[in-house]
């Protein structure tokens, strides 16, 4: 049973993953490249825990204990040397992730499992960067990690059944549901959401309805929690373009980025993070 888990990268996903694990009683080592990044990660964990308390879903005492179970480190070796599982959540860049996996391979116990939270990069390629390709696996979380139920487990070409079973067990121990998918571009969730979003952007481009009405139609008619265009703005239009290009390479024209998506990105309108995407944000 995995007792101590390292999370590498304390950004949006890494901090949420660390929090989910600690809330479920796991000892966590949280690593990032700077103190500033770790402080930011811890602040977002504290904010999220306060929301749980306010909603009556967590006691003050449990929140305090959760925080005590998260130990931060700015040295990678120190963070990972004694853990059973590492979950990598550094930016979506294959070269960077390969480099991180090589270091993890060097610094962790031989039997440790190395998992990646990539949304769409090749788990198999990351496995090949290590001397333990059978112990490398995709553990794809969703934002916000402490709330979202699913973990999409990605079995690389070389991932062993034991590794899949161990990550399935860990996910269940912390109260998550799992699906097991092959290591194919976009897995299930990224491929499904991209197809949906790209088709809705095309409808907007064709002038079939306003952005507001497309989002409203999908929210109220299909019962999705968010409309596709507001969701694209939240994810980031640059990220959506990157996903669409990789899916086009894998599956052909049906994933080709609509002109409008490309032009918005070229204009620097990347969604919420730049204050403008399909919508304009004032805060
Ligand atoms: N944002 C999402 O909704 C979402 C959902 C599922 C999966 N993902 C995936 O999770 C991963 C992380 O995404 P994010 O949104 O948390 O990004 P982010 O930019 O919020 O966080 C990345 C963190 O990694 C740190 N970092 C950079 N280089 C590092 C290194 N060498 N070692 C350790 N830390 C390093 C950064 O300082 C930053 O804190 C990506 O692979 C992404 O595709 C994202």
Automatic annotation (TrEMBL):
Residue span(s) of domain 3-hydroxyacyl-CoA dehydrogenase C-terminal: 186-281
Gene3D superfamilies named in the record: N-(1-d-carboxylethyl)-l-norvaline Dehydrogenase, domain 2 (1.10.1040.10), NAD(P)-binding Rossmann-like Domain (3.40.50.720)
SUPFAM superfamilies: 6-phosphogluconate dehydrogenase C-terminal domain-like, NAD(P)-binding Rossmann-fold domains
Site (Important for catalytic activity): 140
One Pfam assignment: 3HCDH_N
Assigned protein family: Belongs to the 3-hydroxyacyl-CoA dehydrogenase family.
Name of this chain's protein: Putative 3-hydroxybutyryl-CoA dehydrogenase
Source organism of the structure: Parageobacillus caldoxylosilyticus NBRC 107762
């Amino acid at each position: 049973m995995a007792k101590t888990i390292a999370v590498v990268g304390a950004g949006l996903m890494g901090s949420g993953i660390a929090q989910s694990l600690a809330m479920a009683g796991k000892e966590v080592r949280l690593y990032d490249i700077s103190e500033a990044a770790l402080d930011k990660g811890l602040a977002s964990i504290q904010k999220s825990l306060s929301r749980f308390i306010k909603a009556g879903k967590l006691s003050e005492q449990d929140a305090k204990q959760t925080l005590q179970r998260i130990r931060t480190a700015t040295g990678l070796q120190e963070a990972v040397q004694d853990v059973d599982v590492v979950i990598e959540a550094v930016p979506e860049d294959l070269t960077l992730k390969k480099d991180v996996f090589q270091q993890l391979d060097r610094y962790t116990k031989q039997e440790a499992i190395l998992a990646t939270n990539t949304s769409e990069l090749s788990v198999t390629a990351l496995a090949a960067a290590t001397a333990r390709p059978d112990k490398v696996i995709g553990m794809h979380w969703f934002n916000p990690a402490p709330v979202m139920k699913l973990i999409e487990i990605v079995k690389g070409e070389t991932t062993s059944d034991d590794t899949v079973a161990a990550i399935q067990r860990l996910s269940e121990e912390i109260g998550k549901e799992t699906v097991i998918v092959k290591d194919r571009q976009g897995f299930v969730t990224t491929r499904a959401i991209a197809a949906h979003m790209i088709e809705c952007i095309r409808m907007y481009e064709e002038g079939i309805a306003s952005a507001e009405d497309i989002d409203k139609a999908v929210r109220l008619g299909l019962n999705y929690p968010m409309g596709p265009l507001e969701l694209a703005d939240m994810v980031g239009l640059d990220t959506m373009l990157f996903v669409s290009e990789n899916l086009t390479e894998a599956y052909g024209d049906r994933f080709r980025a609509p002109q409008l998506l490309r032009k918005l990105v070229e204009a620097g309108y990347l969604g919420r993070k730049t204050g403008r995407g399909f919508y304009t944000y004032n805060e």
